[in-house]
Write the structure tokens for this entry.
Amino acid sequence: MIDMNDKILTILASMTGENENLVVGKGEIIDLTDGALDARELDKRIQALEVNDMLVVRYSDAESYCVALRPKGRVRADKLKEAEIAAAAAAEEAGNKVELRTPVPTEEDETEKTPIVTTGVSFKKLALVCAGSSFLGGLLAAIVAFLFGRLGA
């Protein structure tokens, strides 16, 4: 079952694109959660998402929010959408009919997205190289200090 914070995050992610601010009414979000929240509870949930670095609230008043999804929030929303689609596909294979809460992306949506560029650098390998070079540099400095100590004495 999807958590209410996750549901709010997926609602906001479906309304906005990459690096966009979204102005949305509190009533609209409450309606999309099937009235499971009131305005005060929604404020707490939005604040929790902001504290967890999922989104940033640019502006809020009694009736609306201006929010922008952070990269962490975008990744979480995409994973939730993928999990929902996978669960629907598994249920469909089993013969059960499942209705998706969020729309399935079409080919048109895929062409509009900016491709993710990877650098091809493994952070694990980079960390090992840095650790190894630090060790060797320290060892070299110790040898030089030892030799200077012996020659000076």
Q: What stands out?
A: Residues 138 and 144 are 10 Å apart (CA to CA). The radius of gyration is 25 Å.
